[in-house]
Amino acid sequence: MQADALTTRLGYRFKNPALLRTALTHRSHSSPHNERLEFLGDSVLNCIVADALYERFPQLTEGELSRARAIIVRQQSLFERACELELGALLHLGEGEVRSGGAQRPSILADALEALVGAVYLDGGFSAARKLVHRVFRPVLARSDPAAVLGKDAKTLLQEHLQGRHIALPRYNIVGTEGEAHRQNFTVECVIAQLSIRTLGEGLSRRAAEQQAARLAYDRIAAQ
User: Fold this and answer.
1) In this structure, which of 44, 47, 107, 181 has its CB flanked by the most CB atoms within 10 Å?
2) Whether 137 and 179 share a structural domain
C-alpha cells in the first residue's frame, strides 16, 4: 500500500518494480543497494535542473545558473523533497540504521531521492525522469524570482549582475517619506545611470524600499 501511495505521489509506475526496491535499499540492509543508482540519479537530476533553469532564467549568467542549480540539488533541498514524498517509511535499512534513526537522516533520504531519479531514468528513459523531477521540484522550479532561486536578496543579485557586465553600481536615494515617525512609509529610487534606468520602491523601512526598487530594476534589465 505504501509503495502504491508513492507511485501516486511520483506520478510514475515502474515497469520493473525491482528498480524501485533497489532505489529504496540502503547498503546497510542488503545488496543490491542504491549507491549505483544514486550516482546515476545525481547526474540526471543535475542535467534536468540545469535545463529547467536555462530555459526559465535567460538573464542569469553561467555562474548564477551554477549557483542556482547547486542550491536546488543540495542535500537539504533533496531531504525536504524526500520528506514530502514520505520516503523514510519505505526505506529498507539495516537494524543498526533503524535503531539510530536512519529513516530520518538527511543524507540517507537525499541519497534515496537521487537513486529514485536514477531508477526512473533506467525504467522509463530521460523523458520520464524529467517529468518526475519537474513534479517533485515544482515548488522550487516554478519560482519566477531569480533572487529567490539564488537564495539572495534583490540588491545583492542586482549588484552582482551589474558587476558581471562592468556597469557602475546603482544609487539609492530616499525621495519621500509619509506617516508618523513610528510608522513611516519610505519611497526610494534606484538609479542605474549607464542604462538610463530609474525605479521606485516603497516599504516600511528604507531597506525594504531599496529591495523593492532593486527588484524592479533587475526585472527591467532582464526584459531588455
Assistant:
1) 44
2) no
- 31 and 131 inside one domain: yes
Return the pLDDT at 1. Answer: 46
- E-assigned strands of the chain? 171-178, 185-192, 197-203
Q: What is the mean pLDDT of each run of 10 residues along the chain (224 residues)?
A: 79 94 96 97 97 90 86 90 93 94 93 98 98 91 74 83 89 90 87 95 90 88 72
Per-residue CA distances from 85 to 67, 110, 132, 174 (Å): 25, 11, 12, 47
What is the SS3 string spanning 106-134?
HHHHHHHHHHHHHHHHHHHHHHHHHHHHH
Cite the active site residues.
42, 114
- Count of the separate structural domains present in the chain: 2
Identify the CATH number of the domain in which residue 178 sits.
3.30.160.20
Interacting residues of 100 by C-beta distance below 8 A, sequence separation 6+: none
CATH number of the domain enclosing 117: 1.10.1520.10
Question: Using CA of residue 75, residue 81, residue 84, residue 86, what is the dihedral sign?
Answer: negative
Q: Which of 3, 192, 35 is nearest to 118 (CA)?
A: 35
**Claim to verify: residue 127 and residue 174 sit in the same structural domain:** no
